[in-house]
Structure formats: structure tokens, C-alpha cells
Design a protein that fits this description.
Elements: E1 2-6, H1 7-14, H2 18-26, E2 32-35, E3 38-44, H3 45-135, E4 138-139, H4 141-150, H5 155-167, E5 173-176, E6 181-185
Antiparallel strand pairs: 1-3, 2-3, 4-6, 5-6
Helix pairs in contact: 1-2
Length: 193
């Protein structure tokens, strides 16, 4: 069934512009009728239903667009919140980093002080050892034999004495196994006489 409507009503029903309606009339795509200088268009119920369906789909599309806009706003707010969280976390990490650096610097200073103190102690002990080492000098085996002979020791007794002292790890008698060399510190050896 068809009904007669004005061009502006047809444009509204069909979802077209007024120029689109006149273009379709000119190309005989729409039936029209001219009465008293006005143009009227025949619209079938089928076209109106199609237009209504299109209008419903446009309404649905508009609803989808509204939901999309709401989602975008929600995401923008979420991004803003996350950005603030990110900034807060960076500030917290920077503060912790500064604290850690401060602790490390103080630990380094403590270690440097301890090192300097140990170096001072070592230097003084090393000087004492050097001074003590200067006092130590060696005597030859012949000199040791002469010393022991003065105290009425036989050569055999002297050899046994030297061997026993090396076995007992007396620091005054040093025997180098590789070169089979015997070194004897200078001393009065009153304990062995």
C-alpha cells in the first residue's frame, strides 16, 4: 500500500536529504505527483518499514557509540589513575635508591677507615719484624761445631743434637730439603749445652 507525503516528510521517512529525494524523483526512482506547485512523493509501506529498520539500526549504532564513548572515558580515567600510580612508584623507588646509596657510601667510608687502620697496624708490625729480622743472622755449621766443642760435646753428639732439634722443629735450625742446606741462627744455645 502506498501513501502520498510531502518531499520533506519523504526525506525524513527515508532518511535522505531533500536534494536526495529530488534526485530520485528526477531519475524516476520515486513516484511523485505535483499539486498546486508542491511535489508529493508516493511512499510504500515496504519502503517505510525498510526505513524504520534502518532507523532502528541507526539507533542501535548510536547506542553502541554511546557505550563506546563511555568505555573510552572509563579507560582514560583508568589510564590517568595508572599514570599516577606509576609516578608514585617511581618517586618511592628514587627515595629508596637515595637511601641505599647513602647506606653504601657510609659502609664504604667505614671500610676505608678500617682499611687505613689495618694498614697502619700492619706497617708498624712490619717495621717491627724488619727490625727483628735485622737482629737474626746465621752461623756456619763449623761455627756451631766450635761453639759446642767449647762445651765439651763430641762431633757425634753435635750431629745427634742438630738432628733432634730439626725433628722437634726448633726455629733456630732450618733445613731445606730441596737443597739439603742447613741454616743455623746465631745464638748462645745455652739451653743445649
Amino acid at each position: 500500500m502506498e501513501r502520498l507525503v510531502s518531499t520533506s516528510q519523504a526525506a525524513q521517512i527515508l532518511g535522505l536529504s531533500l536534494q536526495g529525494i529530488h534526485y530520485r524523483i528526477k531519475n524516476n526512482q520515486l513516484k511523485s505527483l505535483k499539486r498546486s506547485g508542491k511535489t508529493y512523493v508516493y511512499i510504500s509501506d515496504y519502503l517505510q518499514e525498510q526505513t524504520q529498520t534502518k532507523q532502528d539500526s541507526v539507533d542501535d549504532s548510536n547506542k553502541v557509540l554511546e557505550v563506546k564513548d563511555e568505555q573510552i572515558e572509563l579507560l582514560k580515567e583508568s589510564m590517568s589513575w595508572m599514570k599516577n600510580q606509576y609516578k608514585d612508584e617511581i618517586e618511592r623507588l628514587e627515595k629508596n635508591q637515595k637511601r641505599i646509596i647513602k647506606v653504601f657510601k657510609s659502609e664504604i667510608q667505614l671500610l676505608q677507615n678500617a682499611f687505613n687502620e689495618m694498614r697502619t697496624i700492619y706497617k708498624s708490625e712490619h717495621k717491627q719484624l724488619e727490625n727483628n729480622n735485622v737482629d737474626f743472622s746465621f752461623m756456619s755449621i763449623n761455627e756451631f761445631f766450635l761453639l759446642m766443642r767449647k762445651h765439651n760435646k763430641s762431633d757425634r753428639q753435635i750431629k745427634i743434637l742438630i738432628l733432634n732439634q730439626i725433628k722437634n722443629k726448633d726455629k733456630r735450625f732450618i733445613f731445606k730439603k730441596e737443597s739439603k742446606e742447613l741454616m743455623i741462627y746465631k745464638s748462645d744455645y745455652s739451653d743445649l749445652v
